[in-house]
Amino acid sequence: MQCDACRREPVVYQPYSGKHLCRSHFFVDFETKAKHTIRSHGWLQPGNHIAAVLDGGALSAALLVFLAKLVANRRDVRLFAVTIDTGESGNPAPEQARTVAASCGVEWFCGSFVERYGTTLDEIVHQNGSDAAGRICRVLTNDFIGEIAEAHGATLGACATAVDERACAFFSDLLSGTSERTLFSSEVPGKTRIPLIRPFMGIPAPEVVLYAKLHRECAGCDVLPPPCGPDGDYCAPDAKAALDNYDRRHPAAKFALANLAQTLTGIAARQEPPPVCPECGEPVMGGGCESCAIRRKFDRRALT
What is the rounded distance in angstroms from the CA atom of residue 27 to the CA atom of residue 3? Predict the structure, then answer.
């Protein structure tokens, strides 16, 4: 088997395109897609200061490598990385994130759940159960990321959401009758007004992981990202299993769902939005604001 663009040995097969690509042509294909996504949304402008979410996983490591290469010769754009240490036992994410940031020559900031909220993810799981803990962790992590980004002058946040996460979150919302969660997403971390960019939203997660594996800067990173933060859009396990099974037989299924979500989000933006929380601005579905209830419960301290 040979690369479809040259005679070298391929490192990846894309079932949705039918192409085999070698390392060099895979990099070109991958980076071209990510750059096209950025250009099509007008995300990168002179004077931007980007806070990349670096969670210790392979996807976020790939994001930092890509962004570092993208802005390497630009003096008008700055880049730094943000990691949140949730205090989960046995999780090497903070040290892995530190190593990746250093390898990319990018300034790195790390926040601690213990210092910020006086608790750890392990304690949250023990007290609330794993399902509720996932939602709590996402709210607290997003808030913390946004605060650190604002404190260091960020104008953009960046996360490594791939086609898979976008499609699965939308699919799960459709099945549970909560499509408003996807269609009216605020696309900002926590309560900040810093917009989030997602350069990999048109690329399958396995290709993002491969991009990371082929870069020495990402050595040692976990393949699977943690469940918290902007990349951790919730997807019910049974919905994910069903979608993964269908996608194996129909490789374009996740692309179709992600594209549909994007199209419907654009249409929804022209419609009357659902009620929003007056305090944080998030959509309120079925009563009070769950995110603000979580914030009050954990008695958030001022960031210093």
Answer: 13
Angstrom distance (rounded) from CA 235 to CA 245? 15
Q: How far is CA 135 from CA 5, 149, 200, 299, in A?
A: 44, 21, 23, 16
Residue 235 has pLDDT above 80, yes or no: no
pTM, two decimals, is 0.87
DSSP β-ladder status, 12-14 and 19-21: antiparallel
Strands annotated E in 97-165: 107-112, 156-158
**Backbone φ and ψ of 158, nearest 5°:** -135, 135
Q: Please, what is the Cα angle at 260 between 39 and 240, to 5 degrees?
A: 110
Q: How far apart are CA 68 and CA 101, in angstroms?
A: 10
Which residue bears the tokens 């979150």?
169
Note whether 165 and 172 are within 8 A (CB): no
Which amino acid type is present at position 103? S
Spatial contact of 62 and 212, defined as CB atoms under 8 Å apart: yes
The full 3-state SS of 189-233, as one line of letters, equals CCCCCCCEECCCCCCCHHHHHHHHHCCHHHCCCECCCCCCCCCCC
Per-residue pLDDT, averaged over 97-125, amounts to: 93
**pLDDT value for 173:** 82
Beta carbons within 10 angstroms of residue 36's beta carbon: 12
pLDDT digits (tens, 9 = 90+) for 54-88: 988 899 999 999 999 999 999 999 999 999 999 88
Place of tokens 């990018």: 106
174 pLDDT band, cuts 50/70/90, is confident
The total number of residues shown for the chain amounts to: 304
Residues 124/136, Cβ–Cβ less than 8 Å:
yes
pLDDT, tens digit, for every residue of 46-61?
Answer: 999 999 999 888 999 9
